[in-house]
Amino acid sequence: MAASLWRHQDFMLLWIGQSISQVGNQFTGLAVPLIAVLTLDATAGEMGLLGAMGTLPFLFFGLLIGVWVDRHPRRPILILADLGRGAIVATIAGMALARVLAIPYLYALAFLTGVLTVFFDVSYQAYLPVLVDRKQLVEGNSKLEASNATAAVGGPVLAGLVIQAISAAAAMAFDAFTFLVSAGTLVRIRKVEPPKEALVHGSVLQDVKEGLAVIFHDRRLWSIAGCTGTSNFASGAIFVALLVFYAVHSLGMDAATIGFATGLGALGGIGGALSAGPLAKRFGVGPTIVASSFLNGIGPAGLLTATRGTAVPVLAIVTGLTFFSAVVYNINQVSLRQALVPLRLQGRLNASMRFLVWGTLPLGSLFGGFLASVFGVRTAILLMAIVGLAAFLWVFLSPVRGLRTIPEPLA
Predict the structure, then answer these.
(1) pLDDT tens digits, residue range 115-160?
(2) 8 A C-beta contact, residue 168 and residue 96
(3) Do 56 and 334 contact (CB within 8 A), yes or no?
(4) Per-residue pLDDT tens digits for 256-297
(5) What is the C-alpha to C-alpha distance for residues 215 and 352, in angstroms, rounded to an integer?
(6) Which of 59, 135, 229, 336 makes a 20 to 30 Å CA pair with 354?
(7) Strand locations in 104-210 (E)
(8) Can you tell me the distance from the alpha carbon of 397 to that of 7, in angstroms, rounded to the nearest whole number?
(9) What separation in angstroms does the CA of 141 have from each of 22, 125, 147, 191?
């Protein structure tokens, strides 16, 4: 039986830094769309484009960055990405304070932040299997997701209050500081990564093909990619592009009430983090992945039942169900992916997977903004909710459904 990660100093440093940074991310995540809607009077189409700009780098650069990550030590990439994102968020805050911010600037800054996020996220998921033992992956991912979920509870509430009482710029300044804290904890990690000399001999194109081949040659992996990509397409439209616009213009919510409702709903994520491992042990990894993906598709349509009087409880219930199911799904499918694939391919696997599943986020944001501009926000949310509900079929109709435990790595 693997030792507990509570005594794993390097993992604890990673966990502490990410926990603090995730709280800060909630501040900017709420501040930027509120600035766009309330200060810059953005339309639904502009909100769709703004949502897309932050995730377009996964579509444009994800595969190449995956090759880069597999050819270089991952910890320095994580540190530089944190420092860079902190500087960009601080720039947005400064421009907002100086009252020179405009929608085109938000587009550019969101895109640049997205590029660094690709570097960080691809390296981050490839770094955990280096840092901890294979048998500790579920525990490690559960702890990290628990922190994300906890941040999603308190972060929006605090962010809403800060934005309402002080300014959105102050909220983003706090986020910039948390990036520096995260970089500082990463600097203190001492574990040396395995050398990567054997990886530099292939061409970039060969490495990209190898990363994609890992996914498409294993039906379990491409079924997970299809499920997650379809779900993210719908989420990009509903939660990235349209939620704040809908909450402000249709439900009459302000920063504090949006933050309170989403923070309350994020309690579901904590429940998901605590339940993911036990559910997989009780029902099997595959059935848990299938059931959680189905549950994740049910909630978003509930947004349309909200009125100005019931907006807070409805938004809390919808986000609670979404957080719970998404966290259970992610812990189990990410642990499965990390265990199936050799360490030398982890960067390319994660980049290829991110390309396939995060690449749909900007497309969903753009499409959601387009639908809202043509048919209205409520119709756009309904149509995209139907798409999200169908996502579970990818894993339900695949070998993933029959997995009881995490298999041994691929050769």
Answers:
(1) 998 888 878 777 887 787 777 777 887 788 777 777 777 777 777 8
(2) yes
(3) no
(4) 898 889 888 888 888 888 898 899 999 999 999 999 999 999
(5) 8
(6) 135
(7) none
(8) 40
(9) 15, 9, 10, 19
The dihedrals phi and psi of 255, each to the nearest 5 degrees, come to -60, -45
User: 54 and 62 in contact (C-beta within 8 Å)?
Assistant: no
DSSP state of 299: S
Query: For the chain, which domains are there?
Result: 8-402 (1.20.1250.20)
